[in-house]
Amino acid sequence: MQVYKVGGAVRDRLLGLPVTDVDRVVVGATAEEMLAQGFRPVGADFPVFLHPKTGEEYALARTERKSGRGYGGFTFYASPEVTLEEDLIRRDLTINAMAEDDQLNLTDPYHGQRDLEARILRHVSPAFAEDPLRVLRVARFAARYAGLGFTVADETMDLMRQLSESGELQALTAERSWKEISRALMEDHPQVFIQVLRDCGALKVLMPEVDALFGVPQPETHHPEIDTGLHTLSVLEQSALHKQPLTVRWACLLHDLGKGLTPEEEWPRHIAHEHTGLKLIKAVNERFKVPKDCQELALLVGQYHTHGHRALELKASTLLELLQSFDIYRRPQRFEEFIVACEMDARGRKGLEQRSYPQADYLRGAAQAARAVAVQPLLEQGFKGPELGEALKRERLKALKIYKDNA
Fold it and tell me: Which of 5, 82, 108, 117 has the fewest CB atoms below 10 angstroms from its CB?
């Protein structure tokens, strides 16, 4: 029995990056031998075991064969005869197909170290094209390592195009797709993830609503970058630069979907795109079974981001309606995320990335003024039920008028 570290642990150590997840493969052992040593089995699909003391995962070396559509359409074969090289060849990228023993002796049959040095994301074998999830994984790795200069090999991009055109991407489950998308959005360069998906034709299949934004012009006075798709990538880039959470990054990706529906004769203006985009945002949310907090913020940012940009001009009554829509009294964090999403939108414009965004503090101040209105005096005056709600609304409107006059 021989145990090797494989995959990301080897890759990131060679890159000089922190090693977070350690995967181990066991060569020359049977499931019975693992159980006899106290390992605990997990996973029904293939033989993976937890170490009796550390709880870390150990997988038996295995081969795999395509047996159906999609990510799960494989049969696995594990046996003591399966070699380390046979286990490594089924992996996606050469940089993930290296192994090392406890003495750090490297096994690199597919030249992963060479590709690390050349900053290339390259598939290990033609079997890459059997798993559609790998399109998303490669795009995610491109987003993760873009800052180090990594790019996707031309021949790997060709295989990703083939997969995008084959219909296999539609076989991916919503859960698997969202897991990759959400992880990719939290990388340092999430805009690269979207760009790589677009370059290989996968964006058109997975998120046609986002793909449709490329080539759609906006008024140059507000958007020097003109192209709506490029603007979306820039907004996503800003959200990562400012370390925003997943909810904000997801909202940034979807905020302008309505512009993809504007008739060409109306370009470059996009009247009421905030409302026309809502059905598209809902469709994308449902397609990937997106978590509720991400869904809600994306819809609210889509509907109200232009209100955010015009905050200083809004009437007190419109400002109050905006605050009520976000339920700022019970959900203060959601309104804060809306504000930063609007700021990312404003910064995601060519040459305007450093421009100040006074609307942010203005909106925070407005929320504070509305929240400061006390309920107790109204209760003491005898208000209750719907009348209390109306009285509270009147007092908050007064507070916002005062705030607006003094701002």
Answer: 117
